[in-house]
Amino acid sequence: MNVIMFHNPRCSKSRETLALLNDRGAQVEIVEYLNTPPDTNTLRALVDKLGVTARDIVRTGESAYRELGLADPGISDDAVLEAIASHPILLQRPIVVRDGKAALGRPPENVLALLD
Predict the structure, then answer these.
(1) Most exposed: 30, 31, 86, 91, by fewest CB within 10 Å?
(2) Is 21 considered catalytic here?
(3) Residue 43: what pLDDT?
């Protein structure tokens, strides 16, 4: 089975998710999103596949979150996605995509539903 994983090798949850996928025999296409940031269209597609809002894929603990004023509830989803595209450190990780569906690997076991 082929999956795409938005991965940060410095993140323990991301590494755990990758190991879990490898243990299950998945063929993983890794996107190191800090080196190759997804554009807003890709981010919008991820939000749709996850079935969440743009705010649900933002790392609120990052300094860029505060600096960009993303806590303001009046900011549109489009503006949030543009901020993530410009500051990829804001992207929650890991995100795994398979066959038009996606899962956030927090905890890593969340991605197992994609493998069934």
Answers:
(1) 86
(2) no
(3) 99
Say what the pLDDT of residue 11 is: 96
DSSP SS3 for 85? helix
Alpha carbons 34 and 87: distance in angstroms, whole number: 9
For residue 93, give the nearest of 41, 46, 28, 39 by alpha carbon: 46
User: How many domains does the structure of the chain reveal?
Assistant: 2
Q: Among the options 1, 2, 10, 11, which is catalytic? A: 11
What digits encode the pLDDT tens for the residues 52-98? Answer: 999 999 999 999 999 999 999 999 999 999 999 999 999 999 999 99
The whole-number pLDDT of residue 1 equals 83
Instruction: Pinpoint the alpha helices (H) of the chain.
Output: 12-23, 40-50, 63-67, 77-86, 112-115
* Chain position carrying tokens 């549109």: 76
Q: Where in the sequence is the domain holding 67, given as residue range(s)?
A: 38-91
CATH classification of the domain holding 71: 3.40.30.10
